[in-house]
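This part of the workshop introduces the protein records we will be handling. Getting from the letters to the C-alpha cells is the skill we practise here. An example says more than a description, so a record of this kind follows:
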Amino acid sequence: MVKKVNYPNGIKKTFKINTANRGMSLENDLNDTNNYYRNHDIAIIYKKPTPITINKVDYKARNDAVIKEAHFIVPSTTDYNGVYNGKYIDFEAKETRKNYFPLSNIHNHQIEHLRKIKKCGGIGFIIVKFSLSNEVYLLEIDKLDKFLDNSKRKSIPKEYFVNEGYLIKQGYNPYLDYLKIIDIIRSDENE
C-alpha cells in the first residue's frame, strides 16, 4: 500500500506501508484489543487456555523442557471470556477464507455453551473474520440459533452476518472495538 502525504510546507512524500501482517490473525487482533481493554480498565477479558494433559516431557534442562505428547482433557468451550460493565461475556472467534462461514468450524458443544451463557444472563456471541474482504462481524447466539433453526445449510453466508450481525469497525486503539457492539446490543435490550 502506498500512502502519499502533502505536508503544509509544500513538501510531498510517498511512503510504502507494509500491511502484509496486519489483520493476519483474528486471535492476535482480539488479544491486542483485550490488552487495551484491561490496560485502560474498560473490561477484563482473556483468552481461555486449551485444557490438556501432558503425557510425556523431554527434560534436557529445567528451563528447556519440551512437551513430546499431550492430549485434550475435555472439549474446550469457547475462546474468550470475561466481564464488561458488570456483565459476563463469552465468545468464540473464527476466521474463514470464504464468503461463508462453514458450520463445521464451530462445534455443537460450543453453541450449547453460548446458549447457556445467554440463559444465565450473560452475553454470548461469535466473532467471525472474513479474510477475503478483511471484515469482522459479531453475531449474537440468538441470531446464530435463528439461522440454525431456519436453514439446512452447512454454512452461513456472509450476507447473513451483514444483515443479522454487526460489523466491527477496525480502528487504531483498540483495533477491533467489539465492546461498542455490546453497548448497542445492551441498549437495544433495555428499550
Remarks:
- The chain has one domain: 21-190.
